[in-house]
Amino acid sequence: MPEIPSVLPGEVIQSAWGNLIRDRTLQRYADQTELDISVPTPVAGEIAWLGDPGAVFVYDGTDWARQGASPKSPLIFSHPGDAEVTTGTAKYLEAVGIELSTVASTVGSAPSDASLIIDVMLNGVSIFPTSQKPTIAPGATTSSQATPDTTTIPPGAVLTVNIDQVGSTEPGADLTVMIGIL
Fold first, then answer.
1. Domain check: are 50 and 22 in the same one?
2. Burial 72-81 (b: 16+ CB within 10 A, else e)
3. Domain match, 47 and 25 both
4. Residues 103 and 133 both lie in one domain
5. 125 and 156 both lie in a single domain
6. Strand 158-165 to strand 27-29: parallel, antiparallel, or no bridges (unpaired)?
7. What CATH number should be reported for the domain holding residue 43?
8. Which pTM was predicted?
9. Residues 6 or more apart from 3 whose CB is under 8 A from it?
């Protein structure tokens, strides 16, 4: 886009000039659907605020890309030492709203005789009400990636990690839980 020309005193602002300004400012939309309807042919560099999911997006010439500090960096919770059944000891307060992808866990020392099972809670309610929770089998040190039923985490929400079950002879130790962000 060309630079915006200066408006001189006494000049009438033309629609083309106004459109140049509009195309360089942050426009607000309720969600992706409203954005797609309102801006059917975006230009690379256009920016928009979407109320849902509460984030800034920039059109990169192909797609609207969410902006922010490392939106794909996982949330990481750690529980050093022997694992023990606990409720919500590790906490994370979400500031702007995020979408989760998968949850996986790993331990430094494997559980024995029983699986180590973790759960992630959103404001005290499991994000895995019907899905398989991340589970580390006896003798293993990693879980498979588990996809939660609840993936939308609104602003102000609190995520906590519970340890629901540990190994019976050896509980497992040095647990790390990784929650993927879309």
1. yes
2. eebbebebee
3. yes
4. yes
5. yes
6. unpaired
7. 3.40.1620
8. 0.61
9. none
